G-protein coupled receptors family 3 profile domain-containing protein
Amino acid sequence: MQRPAQKPRLLTQFEFDTMWDPDPNTLRLGILLSLNLPSTQREATMVRSAISTIRMAVNEVNEEKIIPGLNMSILIRDSQSPSLYTSTGGAAAISAAGRLISAKVGGVIGDIKSDLTKYEALMTSSVLIPQCSFASGSASLSDQATYPSFYRTIPTIIVLVDAILEVVRRREYFSARARKLGIYILAYQPLTTAGVPFDPTYTFVKNRIQSSQSRIQVVIAAGDSQFALLHEMKEAGFFGPDYAWVTGNEISSQLRQDPDVKAYDGLIMIDNGWELSGYAPYDEFLSKWLRLNPLDYPGAGNPNLENNEGMAYSCVMMLANAYRDLIEKAVPDPANRNAQNPLIQQIIAGDHAANVNGFYNQTTYRGPSGPITLDQNGDRKEGYFMTFSMQDGHSVLFATSFIGNYTFIREPHFKDGHPKPPSDAPPWAIQNPRWDNASGIVLGTLCIIGIVLTIISGVLVVYFRDNIVIKASSPTFCLCELLGILLIMIWCALHIGIPDMAMCIVQNFILPIGVTLLVGSLTIKNYRIYRIFNSVTVMNQAFQTRLLLRWMALALFLCVVPMIVEVSIDAPRPEMINIRSIQWIRCRGSMTQVWWVLSSSIIPAILVFFGVFLAFKTRNVVFLWNEAKQISLVL
């Protein structure tokens, strides 16, 4: 490709001269990064440090002959045109990835933003060229069906969330009071910071906090978006001592842009860690990094490795080790591992890039950012995280997590200035009937009595089924009536306690089935009595129990269908309702729930009206069938 007329902003002249068109007789490693980012952006610092780190790693690969029989070189491309330095241009990223594919690279490293990485990985995975990212943590990149050749050395958002929740747990936010009341995740709110609609005052977040009275807020977004949200929440009064905020980035530099920076004291920030003194791979890497000349390797020589340098280094080394394993497996004799070997010639031509997929996730690589073990999706399983607390306008490290092991250096200072977590739950009482409060005990007792009496009645019906009165009124439909009553009693009992989603779905079905069984049995029994006394041509099979049960089954089916459709489209789920200091948790249906309920009520309503008509028509039957009079009263 023809080199651009102007050198990209973040490249040195040496890099522009040697890395745009590298030696064709080498294993070319493609680099996709935004090379024209403004120097004021943190991403620019990350890109610059990553390029120097990758250069150092490639030099080490060649000096130590890690890949037998060939050297590695760097082929760099700008993933964004100079006019699209906002790191959002998908077309430019796709074009840049296509140019690397045409150049027959053996692997790709990039990009700095997850949105760009998605476009590029889609291209490289289509031809099975391995691509590694040291900065993209989006969970959407874990889809192996879409990105089969993608892996990364940065922990994903999922691993970061695990670290956040572990801090919340270890700081004992969930105390005995919270466990007693129950901690429920009722909803989450995605933050829309671009496009339409965009609410700069985050009204939806404020409404969510006010309606749920949640005490612990976790924010996972880009640093600038986090600062914008936190600033607005502070102005709205949600940064008081009753609230705890946790972010997925160390954003103290952005927070210091606010003159009232001390208002953020108590904010907990979790970020990828870099300082692993005493861990041999880190110490060795840092020693090499400090020996580099910053004039030749911009960003080098700085002992503060806070820009993913170790992860970029690991990308190169894991890919180099994969090619080494491929060659050693295919060419057992070390004497034949040279530049004249057909396999190595094919690797230089880019023909075996797909064959190294899988080599890099067979073992654990001990890199400077910690051991890297990949799962089946190419995601790093664990990471190294540092946890900070804002104190007097500055971030103070208070805990670290390395390979799942948490170490607390000091107690964090919360909003009130003391190492004491805020209240873990709102100061209200949940009003749901429970087995430990009066309303729950009364409701539960009545339900138990009703259930026991219903079961006893069913046993009596079965035992005296040959009694002339019971036999005349059909034991089968008597049992159906009792089953309907039993289901209604169970439905009432299910309202005791705090509902979960499964309970809400069960409640959705039990009531219409119970009501239909009860009303349907009464109506069908009365229908048989009506036919007997009002038809001289009726045949026995017209009112046999078997046939009438089919009509009952049809009524049940028509009643349940709307509920099945509703649950399939939008299942009911728990919803919290707050009124001053009173709180309920109920099952909330979909926006169209009332229409589904009405649809399920049509069949029972028809049965009731038809039953009332039949009760009127059979009011004067002989004493043997006088159950019709009781049915009339019931209906």
Notes: The chain has three domains: 13-154+282-357, 159-272+385-408, 430-634.
